[in-house]
């Protein structure tokens, strides 16, 4: 899919990126992500859930990504591609961090609170599906726009996984479902970051040819 997006002519993406509607959507997404970061960080600490903490950190990273995207919308493709490289690095870093946190909890033990996991996971899912729906029309733009779409899509998938983990924790009385979901979320971040990195590099090379 990323290769297909890279074959698009950059002009339509530039026009989309500079549209007032796209800017409004990004501002909405920024506000939603900041609010959910505060909610999930508190719930994650209270419940002892690694997947909720991972999702909270992801919300914060997405808020930072939206801020960067808003800053470079009016700039040329090169600057937008460079911003995408920065966001790809943050996605990769998030994935590595979550894997490390999951390993630490697995070693030290502890069982999260399933009810809090499930209810906050549902709230986060509603928030992310709303943002992803707003961004759907821009999913095949340049690397910068694509990274925004991938973050929202991955978040919605992650929220479903958190809810499934809550059921698993409730049914088994074990932390392993929570840790498994955290590992899946880390994998999504790593693969998504790599896809954005690859497309951004292609756009930078194409601009210099």
Describe this structure in words.
With 209 residues, the chain is an all-alpha fold. The protein has eight helices and no strands. Helix 5 (77-108) runs antiparallel to helix 8 (176-207). The relative contact order is 0.18. The radius of gyration is 17 Å and the shape is elongated. The longest helix is centred in the middle third of the chain and has 32 residues, at 77-108. It has one domain: Alpha-lytic protease prodomain-like (Up-down Bundle), CATH 1.20.1510. The protein has helices spanning 2-6, 10-17, 20-47, 50-72, 77-108, 114-135, 143-172, 176-207. Pfam families: Cation_efflux. Residues 26-204 form the Cation efflux protein transmembrane domain. The chain crosses the membrane at residues 25-43, 63-81, 88-108, 114-136, 156-173, 179-197. Its main location: membrane.
Features:
mainly alpha; 8 helices; 0% strand; elongated; disordered N terminus
Helical region count?
A: 8
Averaged pLDDT: 79
Number of structural domains: 1
Residues in helices, as a percent range: over 70%
CATH topology (fold) name: Alpha-lytic protease prodomain-like
The CATH level-2 architecture is identified as Up-down Bundle
Q: How does the helix and strand content classify structurally?
A: mainly alpha
End-to-end C-alpha gap: 23 Å
Largest sheet: none
Q: Based on the structure, what is the oligomeric state of the protein chains?
A: single chain
The radius of gyration computed from the alpha-carbon positions, rounded to a whole number of angstroms, is 17 Å
| Count of DSSP strands | 0
Task: Estimate what percentage of residues fall within beta strands.
Answer: under 5%
As residue ranges, the low-confidence spans are 1-12
Q: What order do the helices and strands follow? A: HHHHHHHH
Broad shape:
elongated
CATH class: Mainly Alpha
Protein name: Cobalt transporter
Keywords: Membrane, Transmembrane, Transmembrane helix
GO molecular function, one term: monoatomic cation transmembrane transporter activity
Main location: membrane
